[in-house]
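Same chain as my last thread, 74 residues:
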Amino acid sequence: MKNLMMRTHIHSMLVKERVKEVLQSNKGEGFIDTAVKILISVVIGALLLAGLYMLFQDTILFSSRYKHDRKCYA
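reply #2:
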């Protein structure tokens, strides 16, 4: 019984050290940083496009809702 308690105590100390190392490391910080940069870029691009639509009040980007003839692509 004493041997089992000693092994359990040692195992719990090893798990505690592993958890401590994982929480203190900044290994995956680059992924979060990149995701935030992409999200900010998308939001700024959408705001810029919305501003252009408000400014010119016309079609800025090609829309497939309307029929176009092939002559306009030549």
